[in-house]
Amino acid sequence: MKTNITEQSPPQPQAAQSSTTTTKEAWKPPSSPQNTPNKIFKIQQPQDLLSFVVADERLSIVKVYASWCKTCKVFDIRYRKLASQLGGGDVVQPGPVRFAEMQYDTPANEEMCKLLNATKLPYILIYRGSQGKVADFQCTPAKFQVLVDTVNDLLSDDGNGNDSVVVDSGNSTLAALRNVTTSSLDSQQQQLSKDGDHNTNNEIKALKEQLVLMENEKIEMFELMKAQIEADKEEIAKMINVVKIQKSMIEERDEQIQKLSGEIETRDGELAAMTKNFNNQVKENNKMEQELALGKSQVADMTNRTAEAEKTISALELKAAIREKEAKEKERQTKALWASWERQKIKYEEERNSVRKMAALSVKSIKTKVRVFISRKD
């Protein structure tokens, strides 16, 4: 699979927007790694760049990177190794070269990077004190040797030829292979040039360019694999630290568990006693439940009897209501009959009184007639 990391340009606004929505945190190189303490200056704003450049007459290298640039991540590993070789250990014995880094996708630095034409990342800016900028170029991991050669040339111009840069063995092997292949092709090209075979010469040039391209791709793949190995080492170291911390936590918890075991044993005895008491209470509760069930059956029987009594009372009340109604009717009839008797009695009294009066009048009349009759006899 062909890997192309020779050039990284700033993303378009749409791509930048999509990168902000992802949940994965953007990669940022550490400002002061453990193996190169205080050797790489962090440029946060344009004023920092000016202060860094004019602060010293030594050779100053500024790396421009971006958080979204994967090539910058690979380049950063070798850049920091170069800083550890040439940056110096302390203030008393400073190194021949000063190193800094500037993040492209920072609002304070973006405009300045564009003015410096540092838009193809990673980008290298080289300054020399009051002389200002002496070199600038886009530098991928495959072209890291260009940076090394440029630094060596500039140090040689300063008379610091002894401070040459040592390149790692992996790139040295690939560079040696490329040089051998190139020299072999050059010798074949010279031999064929003597014979005047121009067509073959052109083919060899094309093959040479293709071989150089393949070698660059191999170097890039090698750098990617190397960066992945470094990242894996860091992850393994982190995991080892986590395991140590977890181990200490487990040991502490084991001690706590041992302490709690004694408490658990004592509580087991208490729990056994509580269990016995609970069983006794359960038996008592069962007995009470049986008595309660018996009481419920008695209550149900009483309820049934009460219901039957209520039915009987309802029937009696109905009969009493009927009888009361009949009694009221008889009372009404009796009162009506009594009233009729009273009226007949009054009428009878009136008739008797009238008869008495008539009898009295008759007796009186008879007496008068008798007296008259007697008087007549006399």
Automatic annotation (TrEMBL):
Q: Provide the coiled-coil residue spans.
A: 197-224, 271-333
Q: Is Cytoplasm among this UniProt entry's keywords? A: no
The record's listing under Pfam families reads: Thioredoxin
InterPro entries named among the record's database cross-references: Thioredoxin-like_sf, Thioredoxin_domain
Q: Which UniProt keywords apply?
A: Coiled coil
Q: Name one GO biological process term.
A: cell redox homeostasis
Highest taxon of source: Eukaryota
Q: Where is the Thioredoxin domain?
A: 23-186
Q: Decide whether keyword Thylakoid is in the record.
A: no
PROSITE patterns linked:
THIOREDOXIN_2
Which segments show compositional bias classed as Low complexity? Answer: 14-23
- Disordered: annotated span: 1-38
Question: Which family is this protein grouped under?
Answer: Belongs to the thioredoxin family.
Protein name (record): Thioredoxin domain-containing protein
Write down the species.
Skeletonema marinoi
